[in-house]
């Protein structure tokens, strides 16, 4: 299968980054985490048979050197649902399936992504549950109705539950991971790191321990 994977990102210096994390560790440390997280994800994706894209939240951020490793696309405007819908359906025009992830789950492993890829051979959708009630991964090989995107509350304790109910068919569910929003989440991520770390995940792990 020809599968695209889009990493939703914000550009440092243009948009605020990890504001809840920054409230306790400071803006500089929060941005440092974000950059290390992106590098970890970039390294993980380089070992997979996927077509990766940075889904950049700011049109003026598309040329930032941070995004040089992969193809880049603007997410479009609107809320999170509008942006996900735009990226998902644009990539579905030229790929058999599309996977969406964020830039704040650096513990995402090759093993989990391979499970998602395999699931899409037989399932229309796949989802990676996040501990906060959302999801760290959403993939599919079929169009998702605008009613689904519009009818799902974002950043809500039942975001994933409501989205699953609205999808045309039940998704394959991966293991649960933690998106990093707060300083407490950093320690959880340490426990969720894969047994075999890539170089950038190791750097991030050591950074969290020092913090």
Structure notes:
It is globular, with a radius of gyration of 16 Å. Strand 5 (125-129) and strand 6 (135-140) form a beta hairpin. It has a seven-stranded mixed sheet, sandwiched between helices. It has helices at residues 19-25, 27-45, 80-92, 110-122, 146-150, 159-166, 183-192, 199-210; strands at 3-9, 51-56, 71-74, 97-102, 125-129, 135-140, 172-173. The chain contains eight helices and seven strands, in the order βααββαβαββααβαα. The longest helix is centred in the N-terminal third of the chain and has 19 residues, at 27-45. The model has no long low-confidence stretch (mean pLDDT 96). The protein has one domain (3-210): Spore Coat Polysaccharide Biosynthesis Protein SpsA, Chain A (Alpha-Beta Complex). It has 211 residues and is α/β, with parallel strands linked by helices. Helix 1 (19-25) crosses helix 2 and helix 2 (27-45) runs antiparallel to helix 8 (199-210).
């Amino acid at each position: 299968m020809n599968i695209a994977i889009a990493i939703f990102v914000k550009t440092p210096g243009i948009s605020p980054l990890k504001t809840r994390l920054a409230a306790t560790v400071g803006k500089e440390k929060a941005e440092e985490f974000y950059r290390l997280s992106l590098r970890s994800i970039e390294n993980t994706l380089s070992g997979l048979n996927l077509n990766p894209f940075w889904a950049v939240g700011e049109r003026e951020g598309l040329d930032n050197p941070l995004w040089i490793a992969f193809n880049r696309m603007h997410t479009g405007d609107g809320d999170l649902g509008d942006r996900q819908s735009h990226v998902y359906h644009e990539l579905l025009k030229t790929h058999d399936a599309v996977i969406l992830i964020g830039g704040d789950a650096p513990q995402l492993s090759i093993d989990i992504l391979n499970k998602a890829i395999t699931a899409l051979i037989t399932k229309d959708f796949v989802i990676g549950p996040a501990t906060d009630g959302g999801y760290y991964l959403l993939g599919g090989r079929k169009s998702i109705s605008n009613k689904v995107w519009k009818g799902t509350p974002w950043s809500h304790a039942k975001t994933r539950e409501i989205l699953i109910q609205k999808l045309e068919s039940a998704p394959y569910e991966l293991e649960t991971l933690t998106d990093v929003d707060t300083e407490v989440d950093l320690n959880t991520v340490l426990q969720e790191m894969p047994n075999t770390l890539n170089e950038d995940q190791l750097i991030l792990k050591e950074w969290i321990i020092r913090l």
